[in-house]
Amino acid sequence: MHTAPTQLDPSFETVWDELVYRGSVHVSTDADALRAALGGEPITFYCGFDPTAPSLHLGNLAQLVVMRRLQLAGHHPLGLVGGSTGLIGDPKPTSERQLNARETVAEWVSYLQRQVSRFLVAEGENPVRLVNNLDWTAPLSTVDFLREVGKHFRVGTMLRKDAVAARLESDDGISYAEFSYQVLQGMDYLELFRTYGCTLQTGGSDQWGNLTAGTELIRKAEGAHVHAIGTPLITEPDGRKFGKSEGNAIWLDANLTTPYAMYQFWLNQDDAIVVQLLKAFTFLTRERIDELAIAVADAPFRREAQRVLATEVTAYVHGIDATRQAAEASAALFGSGDLAALGVDTLAAAIASLETVTALPDAPVLQLLQESGLVDTLSEGRRAIQQGGVSVNNQRIEDDAATLEGRLLHGRYAVLRRGKKSLAGVDAG
């Protein structure tokens, strides 16, 4: 199994040109000035991640890939994990966030810092530096905060921010704490500008109001012009946002989203968006992506682009070995590999992706076919077995009185199959 090296595509004149090609710029401050800045002497840039969960997720990965491209171009990354903003939470368009305990947020800060460090190089001429905004907000008194930062913000402008406006129209309204989130994020940019000379912030386009709060604060407080890039939101084919608020998050922590589940997620992407995902989430060259785009158009049934996408991104997040195991599990689960050769953790992750029934170790296969929903009735199950259309762990069942006894993998798991594509899992643990 091979993956593309983590490097820039030499066919682009500047990293800005590559970001534009990859669809990573949805909105920005002055594009010409940004292209010049990113094509010149190294600058310092940052992206912030709030510890509202014990792991980063797919939306954060989009930012980390952009940061890595900028780092590869020689620019200096700052990875901000928001120990203070995480105590408040940026306003959701629908409802107030539940505040997490300070101890929980502090623990999550450590988790997220370790994750950020996995994707951005910590050695060399432009190593990543991790910063925590609690370091400069905690010592600041309320009066100093209002005098030094709050005086530069206009309430009318703050009310027009999309998330704030949406909340004002809701029944619950918005608390002063969440209303002030944009002031806190603006202060972050000002602090990093003063301390590190930071002149670029990246973030999701849904954060554009918060990003520009920082550029405006620096303009008013320091008389300087700095930049911001808002990346497109990552959405499913039906337009739904990938994110933990939607209940379908793909986490970067293997304990929350297994490498197998991540591999399958990318493998199942729609032809309509797979090329754009290759551009945004991988380090494949433009030439290679063009080849895969042709493959999608000419032979979509081969799903070559999806397999490459799944391999590249899963390996970037979890490494080659875990990705190889995930690919082998995927092949075995759908009939072209050896389920018995899979490790117990990999097999368990594969089983978890299926509709799963619990059973005794000697449960009748016929009964499990019905309980799992692979057949509606026992008589339908008997016919399926007699016609040679049922297997357990890819081994055909020929006797409708067969049980699980002697068939379980790792003494616990089985995969039921009816036909080629109808699968269910069995857990006899």
From TrEMBL:
Domain of life: Bacteria
Catalytic activity, as annotated: tRNA(Tyr) + L-tyrosine + ATP = L-tyrosyl-tRNA(Tyr) + AMP + diphosphate + H(+)
Record-listed L-tyrosine binding positions: Y46, Y181, Q185
Enzyme Commission identifier(s): 6.1.1.1
Main location: cytoplasm
First-tier enzyme category under EC: ligase
Sequence motif 'HIGH' region, residues: 51-60
Locus of motif 'KMSKS' region: 241-245
Gene3D superfamilies: HUPs, RNA-binding S4 domain, Tyrosyl-Transfer RNA Synthetase
Quaternary organization: Homodimer.
Function: Catalyzes the attachment of tyrosine to tRNA(Tyr) in a two-step reaction: tyrosine is first activated by ATP to form Tyr-AMP and then transferred to the acceptor end of tRNA(Tyr).
HAMAP family: Tyr_tRNA_synth_type1 (MF_02006)
Family per record: Belongs to the class-I aminoacyl-tRNA synthetase family. TyrS type 1 subfamily.
Protein name (record): Tyrosine--tRNA ligase
